[in-house]
Design goal:
339 residues; alpha/beta; Arc Repressor Mutant, subunit A; Rossmann fold; seven-stranded mixed beta sheet; two-stranded antiparallel sheet; 15 helices; 9 strands; 15% strand; binds S-adenosylmethionine
């Protein structure tokens, strides 16, 4: 039996932190609506009052004022007198015409957001939420989904691809295979950082087709060859380094482990595996702690946030040596392992 609990001293700052946590959904909603309504696109044309913006995008004055106030609180717009303007972060990432536009990612997160109202049931039943779209169902023949998927992963990789390319030690490596390449954002960043490196990028057929377009648009088709493949069964024995970025988390523990074992099986001796993933142990933001919830509500393949100890143990048990873990970006880590 446990003794009576010691009385806890309530600290006001803890209550403030919890208040922020309980109301955090408001900031996400404001951002999703603002992007859907084209607020940042409109403000990019020039500063204006809430009422002028409302007229431009079809909102009543009260609605425009309410939304702009919320965005100002998050530092996405600023107010000078009674005129609002985009802050640089909004101009760079939230304006449709900008190549770094994160709209696909916001729309994707918006679909999770709607489902999270049923998180409790999903946790209780250990089942995905069957409402709207299920992104793990996207990896089939649906071409429109494949394109959207490639766009979503390209937007999310903006925070990570350059960092990973700067971090990866690829001196002397000749041929890299990007397993489950999606948008090819990592292949593109690695190709730029390592002009002598040949890259094969593979994914499921529909996704590979869109990825090939993205590579061509960057003028890198000579260096990065994109093709369809099944990473669980195909082998790439002419490669001396393999990249597995944000893939194992999409699968349950036994499938994730099976994939690592399969890769070890075909990698030539002396080759290297770069495993890039969100690891809570290396996190500089909350996201690596939270993203498992997205897998929980969407994924039908038992995906979850496999942690550092477990992932390193799988690598070790597969036969890999010289396993090293480092922070790759503010939201991701890089595990390198050698055969
Ligand atoms: C979460 S995405 C990660 C994409 C990319 N590596 C990145 O980090 O942005 C996982 C990718 O693995 C691909 N994938 C899953 N199972 C696969 C399989 N059996 N063969 C080939 N690709 C697969 C999916 O189509 C998807 O594009």
């Amino acid at each position: 039996m446990m003794g009576a609990a010691e009385p806890v001293t309530a600290r006001p700052e803890d209550a403030v932190r919890l208040h922020r946590l309980m109301t955090g959904y408001l900031a996400s909603s404001a951002l999703f609506s603002a992007m859907e309504l084209g607020v940042f696109d409109a403000l990019e044309k020039g500063p204006g009052t809430a009422e002028q913006l409302g007229e431009q995008i079809g909102l009543a004055g009260r609605s425009a004022r309410t939304l702009l106030l919320a965005l100002r609180g998050e530092g996405l717009v600023s107010k000078d007198g009674d005129r609002y303007r985009n802050e640089p972060v909004a101009s760079a990432f939230l304006v449709r015409a900008n190549p770094q536009y994160m709209g696909a990612l916001a729309a994707h997160q918006g679909t999770h957001y709607a489902k999270l109202t049923q998180l409790t049931d999903s946790l209780r039943d250990n089942k995905p939420v069957r409402a709207g779209e299920n992104y793990s169902g996207a990896f089939g023949d649906d071409k429109a989904w494949a394109r959207r998927w490639a766009e979503i992963t390209r937007a999310s990789s903006l925070l990570m691809a350059e960092n990973l390319a700067a971090q990866a030690r690829l001196d002397g490596r000749k041929h890299l295979v990007d397993l489950g390449c999606a948008s090819c954002a990592y292949s593109i960043a690695l190709a730029r950082a390592n002009p002598g490196l040949q890259i094969s990028a593979v994914d499921q057929p529909g996704v590979a087709e869109v990825a090939a377009e993205f590579v061509q648009a960057e003028g890198l088709s000579e260096q990065v060859a994109v093709r369809p493949a099944n990473i669980f069964t195909d082998t790439f024995r002419d490669c001396d380094v393999a990249l597995l970025s944000h893939v194992i988390q999409g699968f349950d523990r036994s499938r994730a482990r099976e994939l690592i074992n399969h890769i070890y099986g075909w990698l030539p001796a002396g080759a290297q595996l770069l495993l890039h993933t969100h690891l809570p142990e290396r996190a500089q933001t909350r996201f690596p702690f939270l993203f498992g919830l997205i897998l929980q509500i969407n994924n039908t393949q038992g995906g979850e946030a496999h942690d550092e100890d477990l992932t390193c143990r799988w690598l070790h048990e597969a036969g890999f040596g010289d396993i090293q873990v480092s922070t790759a970006s503010p939201i991701s880590a890089l595990i390198t392992a050698s055969k």
